[in-house]
Amino acid sequence: MRRARWTVGIDEVGRGALAGPVVVAAAALRGGRAPSRRTPGILKDSKKLSAARREEWAAFFSAHPRHAVFALARVYPRQIERRNISQAANLAAARAFRKLEAIARLGKNTPVFLDGGLFLGSGAARAAFGARAKTIVKGDEKIAAIKAASIVAKVRRDGLMRRLAKRYPAYGFELHKGYGTAAHRAALRARGPSPAHRLTFIGKSATIQKKWEEYQSSIIQKERQAAAGRISR
User: Are 75 and 68 in contact (CB under 8 A)?
Assistant: First the structure.
């Protein structure tokens, strides 16, 4: 069999966060390797790189589109709550892969590797992607394309969280990126959740739940007032 032109790696970022989206990147590396010249260092899983080095790698990949192609997808808190985080991450993985297929024109023999915990659907959806999609335990430590995907997903999600920090400055999203640090939990206890939070992740706290119910009640009241105003006109 002719060697595949591309190797695809898929990874997610934000699975365990209390706020913000889960972001999945699908990366296609020509020949399954990153370009070898003038790299920012050794290609590693995003968790093993500094923020500055991740940014350097993301810029490096952008500068080599003939050797590295990416597609991203994200699922936001309300849909995470409806589906649960595993289904949401897998949904984003399928979306990112479909985008990548269109961009890179992947062949039928293109190998596809997902980091452990991610799957490209089940049943009929799984059959549509073919047997070439494999989930690899600790794939972000073993497969170059998954490492690349983890970096790009992390850089993209961190950027999204910095933008959310400007919208909801009381929570410090720019610092902890939505994860459950002590400072983040203290802000939740003091202020309750923002629309960027995943309520199914934080609802076990009675104080936070009470504040959320108060927030929901205020929204309902405003909607009723707006509807009454429209009727009176």
Answer: no
